[in-house]
Amino acid sequence: MSQFSALPTNWPVTLEHHRVMLAPLRYTHRRQWYEVRNRNAAWLTPWEATDPLRHQPSMTYGAMVRAHNRDGAAGVSFPWAIFIQDSTEARPELVGQMIAAPVLWGSMRSTTFGYWVDQARAGQNIVPTAVALAADYLLSHVGLHRIEINIVPENAPSVRVVEKLGFRSEGIRKDYIHINGRWRDHASYALTVQEIPPGGLLTRLI
Known about the structure:
This protein has a single domain (about 1-205), classed as Aminopeptidase (3-Layer(aba) Sandwich), CATH 3.40.630. The protein is about 25% helix and about 30% strand. It has five helices and nine strands; from the N terminus they run E-E-E-H-H-H-E-E-E-H-E-H-E-E. The chain starts with a strand and ends in a 14-residue tail after the last strand.
């Protein structure tokens, strides 16, 4: 059973479906976050955005949490961590992140999704569930109209996520985002609220 645990315009927002949970990062997650990031450096680096001018220092964990809380409260992004609850007794395990940013209101009412997951958890339907949870919430409860996901074409696992959920291909964007030290083409995928099936995107994972 899926659960939306907050009003559409309120932050923090926690979403759950079976063992997958989207929840805001807290200061208490610092050790878990660094452990999974460090362990997955080689897995994540080829797909991570970089600063083409390289003039901005890396953000500390505390600064990241504060920025996420500020932006979530302002409604300009929905920044979640992805957790797995394998048993009722165990503490939820932090396995990745999922962010909707920027959130554009007014006549656009759209956002772009980005995400990553622990390599040890890849192929367990975690990211498709997280994307479906976030999309269903933002389109059906918050009132956004469109969600976009841009992927380096060689990133086959991410392409499988959007294909599984029925995102529509909108073609290639040339030199779209600076990734791992150079400008990379991206395949663009999108979905509007009119394309969501009855019962939401989660029904495509059954």
